[in-house]
Every structure is written in structure tokens, then in C-alpha cells.
Design goal:
homodimer, about 210 residues, Glutaredoxin, globular
């Protein structure tokens, strides 16, 4: 049988970008149902005592992450322009997506937001930028942005955080398949293998 | 042209185990020269303010690392027995390897130490265990252990730390090819691609 993949992504996360741009096509190729799950990483990192990205807190790690992104983007044929601000504040973008997640155009908007952040060096915390992206992908920008900033809009994203914590998620991107948690863009293909196999991607020996 | 791969490994590191067990055969297949570079991660983590493995400091991350190790070991057909102590104190093992690194049997000893840690739940900080492994791989255990504990033996491992820091290394396993740094077992194959290509593994667009 085929399980669905829940894709947990953070708009400020570089490696989430690599997955976000690829996952819908990969799932379509394999007939794997896909759900998009916005994830604010800030509260998770705050619980670690981090008030910034680990890629900024640990400079050697950050330097190599950007070099690795250059190599991986070249390999995956994805554009990359290192943003002036990293990580960007992704709260408004994530709340906006939560409000339109059931719309079939939502994946286009998600990719547009990632491209703005990592290929176009645009400020995705700016309502004007998000408004442009909403309009370009067929949404009513004013109403989507207004809904994101209501108490209900904020509560939707908080509920995502709570769900993520309950699933054991600690970073992004993450993939959850039938309760099995995979972390990192390097595990996207493994998650899809798991989703399409009776025996958990053939890894019967790893089953508990 | 073909560049060599410098493999930086920490005996206490789970993902270093996955690379250590595979890298010599993969390099041989591709005619890539390989050097083994013992790396004590403790001083690097201490510089981050960590006095323990991040997999212990951050329990959700640690739980999923062990699950991922089960999946990856099943995929790579490597045995895994979660050690009672993690991370193990690897200083004596690393100092011992430094003293015999030019011996052609050193890779056998390295793999034996990793198997002891991650497949046999043996205490690799115990000189008696290391002595068994040295003897089993053809070394004079008493002289190798004695050399590891001299001031010169300790200085050799400290020099490795200094070299690693100068290369920008911040974790293990790491691979360095012609100045290019790759981090993590998931990048082993990419490092080999880089080593065997004029254009950096075909990633010309990523060249600086």
C-alpha cells in the first residue's frame, strides 16, 4: 500500500527550500499523497536555548552550509542567491499559508515564497512582498494577509507547532510517513521509498 | 585528474561509523587516494558550549538519530547495536590510531574499533578492549598503547584538532577534497564525485 507524506517546512530554512521545490513532482511521479505542513522553527530552537539559527551561532557550520547549498543547488538545478538577511522572519508567511493550505494553488504560493527568499533576495516578512506573491499565484492578497493576522490565523500556526512537537519533529525539513520521521532534505527520497513500500522501503530489518 | 580524499572521523560518532565501514572500498573502486584523519570532536563541541553530544543535549534529535541509524544500517547492510554508553570516550582510541596511521593495517584497526563501539557494545575507552583489537589486527598492543599515552602521542592528536579547525571542520564525518569540505555521511558519495572530476563533480556552476 501507499502511505502519504506529510512535509514539514520552515520558510526560513535553506534545506527546506531544496525539498519544497522538488517534493510535489516527486510525489506525483510515485502517486504518493502529499500534505504541506508549515512549521515555525523559532519555538523549537528557543527550547534549545538558541535565539538565532545554528548556522549563525556556529560560524564554521554556517559557512559550510552555504557552500553546500551552492553545490546542492547546482546538482539539483535550482537557483540560489544568498539572502542579505538570514534567517528571515517567516511568521507572516507561515500564517498566510496556514490560511490557504487547502487551496490547490497553495503549493505554487509556497514555491513562490521560497524563491523570493532564496533565489531573489526578497524580504518575505514584508506584507507588500507577500501580497505580490499572493496576487501572482491567484489569491486575493488583502483577504489572505488579513486572515493571517487574526487570532484564528495565529492559532492555526501555533497548532502546527504543537502537532510537530508531538511527532518528535526538531528541525526542518521533516517528512512523516505513517508515523515514521525523516529529517533533512537528504532523506526526502528515503521517505518516498518508505511511503511506497509495504515493508517500509524494504527496510524490514529496521522495523520495530 | 583525481584528487585524494581526506576522511576526518571521530570514533564516538555514529555517522562516522557509516562512512568508516564503507570508504576504503568506495575509494578503491574509483581509484581515489584515501587518507584517514582521526578527529577528536570534544574540543570542537566544547567551543560550542556543549559538554555532551548534541544527540544527548537535544533528546528529540537524539531519538530520531538512533532511528535513522537503524534505517541507514539496514539499507547499507551494516550491523548496529546501540551502545550502553554514548558517546564513548574516544581519546585513547584516537591517540592509538594516530601512532599507527601509516601502517597498512590501520584501516582494519579503525573498522574494528567502530564495530566494537556500534555493533558489539564494547567499551573502546578500555585499554584491554583496545589491546584485543590491536592484537586481532596484527599490532603489538602493548607498544601501540604505550606510544598513544606519551606526550608525543597526545601531541599528535592535538595537531589533528588544529589542522581540522584550520580546514573549517565542525563535525564528523567530514571529507576534504582539494580544499573542498563536505560534512556528513550523506556527502561521502558527493566527495568522491568531486575527487574524480575535473570540474568538481560536474558542479561547475558551484565553483568559486
Amino acid at each position: 500500500m501507499t502511505h502519504g507524506v506529510a512535509f514539514w517546512f520552515e520558510f526560513a530554512s535553506t534545506y527546506s527550500y531544496l525539498s519544497a521545490m522538488r517534493i510535489q513532482a516527486l510525489c506525483a511521479e510515485r502517486n504518493v499523497p502529499l500534505t504541506w505542513q508549515p512549521l515555525p522553527l523559532g519555538p523549537i530552537f528557543a527550547a534549545y536555548g538558541w535565539r538565532d539559527s545554528p548556522f549563525n551561532l556556529f560560524p564554521a557550520k554556517g559557512a559550510n552550509m552555504w557552500r553546500d547549498m551552492e553545490r546542492e543547488c547546482a546538482r539539483l538545478d535550482l537557483p540560489l542567491q544568498r539572502p542579505d538577511v538570514f534567517p528571515q522572519n517567516s511568521m507572516l508567511a507561515a500564517r498566510t499559508i496556514c490560511g490557504v493550505i487547502d487551496d490547490p494553488r497553495a503549493p505554487d504560493l509556497i514555491r513562490a515564497i521560497y524563491s523570493a527568499n532564496f533565489a531573489q533576495n526578497r524580504n518575505i516578512s514584508d506584507p507588500a512582498v507577500l501580497g505580490d506573491l499572493l496576487t501572482a499565484t491567484g489569491f486575493d492578497a488583502a483577504s489572505a494577509l488579513a486572515a493571517a493576522q487574526t487570532p484564528e490565523g495565529k492559532a492555526r500556526l501555533r497548532a502546527q507547532s504543537d502537532t510537530a512537537a508531538a511527532l518528535g519533529i526538531y528541525g526542518a525539513p521533516s517528512f512523516v510517513v505513517d508515523g515514521e520521521l525523516f529529517w533533512g532534505n537528504d532523506r526526502l527520497e528515503r521517505a518516498l521509498d518508505w511511503a511506497t513500500s509495504d515493508t517500509g522501503g524494504g527496510h524490514r530489518a529496521a522495523e520495530r
